[in-house]
Amino acid sequence: MDGERDIAQLNAATGCGPLLSSPPETKQPLRQRVFEYVRAHGNAARSDISRDLGVSPGSATTLTAELMQAGLLREVAEVQREQSRGRPRVALEIVPEAGYIIGIKLGDAQHTAALADFTGTMVADVTIRHARNSRSMADVLDEIETLIEALLDKAGMQLSAVHGIGVGMAGIIGHETGIVHWSPLLDARDQPFGDAFEARLGRPVFLENDANMLTMAELWFGAGRGLRDFAVVTIENGVGMGLVLDNQLYRGSFGMGLELGHTKVQMDGALCRCGQRGCLEAYLSDYALVREGATALNLAPEAKAGFQVVLSDLLKEAQNGNIAARKVFQRAGRFLALGLSNVIHLFDPALIILSGDRMTHDFMFEETVVEDVQALCLSRGQMPCQIKVHSGGDLDWARGATARALSEVTHDLFNGDTAG
Ligand SMILES: [Zn+2]
Predict the structure, then answer these.
(1) Gene3D superfamilies, alphabetically (predicted)?
(2) 369 with 187: CB under 8 angstroms?
């Protein structure tokens, strides 16, 4: 994998983090708001801070002086603004070395880690493949340790410079408790993953459901930066969803929310891997396609070893115009439209981002899917919600994990807790 080029491409944007300010009830300290404003814009002059945050020029000077004193901000010679006239202004930017963050995406077949500095810019990444089956928590922690060692080795850095580590994985994850209630990666339920991780590595760790990590990536680095409400729907081995409402990641009360894949679309319908019937996932995910494809095309019978083979044969057949293969995907597409129209009617997002490896195949997302969604919406052809495809890789997910950790470490920095 050509990690360096991927990093350069992903780092191309200026600044990172949500561009809209948080709702007033979050009551962030002013210093934090100034710091996050500068990070979101890449750099900013004191007059911009004063104007956009509604503080007096004197306060802007005092606040930025404090942040400079703390080693978090520094002056840059000039700022390029489109309409700047006259002499260049002095701007402020985040000191990149003020802290480092690691973001990890744990996956079925491989784990990916990214190292980012305090501006959110990625400086190194590593991917390690592993055997594809669920394992004990100790096994997975061993793998993470190896992954982090390889990452730090590549960057020439020590773990002590890392202020926090974000970890995203599939499953039901207690983002506050650090308990993994269930994950396809682990062979047991209710594992105290966060505590075990911190005990082993001695750095703060922030766990999150992987669809939420990807949603963080869109909120911090992607199409969601300037939006108040948007949804991310991921279609891979399962169907996941993340949601930003009022500029904040929505998590629900008990970790049961946003399980779009397990919303029912058919009473007593197809068997889902969750054990129930009629779930959206049972019509849409990889295993559903393999099940359908194996029958429709008489491909190799579904077997554990043959899963990927059947899936790639099915994709090849569809690409080559095989009608039966295309029908399998078209049917999945209609169920996708059904699921998306339900998301629109429940949450009314400005944008739905479709994400997943399979989105790289155009025939999976033909205009018929959008037309089907339009037809299923009450607005009938006037649907204002946009639907975009973002076929990113594991590095996007890992980067979302850096955003989660960066967000937490920043919060702790300005709200009393020490974050190393
Ligand atoms: Zn299910």
Answers:
(1) 3.30.420.40, Winged helix-like DNA-binding domain superfamily/Winged helix DNA-binding domain (1.10.10.10)
(2) no
Sign of the alpha-carbon dihedral angle for 258, 260, 261, 262:
positive
Residue 281 Cα to ligand 1 midpoint, Å, equals 6
CATH of domain 228-349+357-391: 3.30.420.40
Distances (CA, A) of 137 to 141, 146, 191: 6, 14, 7
The closest of 289, 331, 281 to 314, measured between CA atoms, is 289
Give the distance (Å) from ligand 1 centre to CA of residue 24: 38
Domain 3-96 -> CATH class: mainly alpha
Q: Which CATH superfamily is domain 98-216+395-414 in?
A: ATPase, nucleotide binding domain (3.30.420.40)
pLDDT in tens, 254-274: 777 888 999 999 999 999 988
Distance 172 CA to ligand 1 centre (A): 13
**How far apart are alpha carbons 203 and 15 in whole angstroms?**
26
Distance in angstroms (rounded) separating the CA atoms of residues 45 and 402: 26
Nearest one of 158, 161, 204 to 408, comparing CA atoms: 204
Q: Two tokens at 186?
A: 């682990």
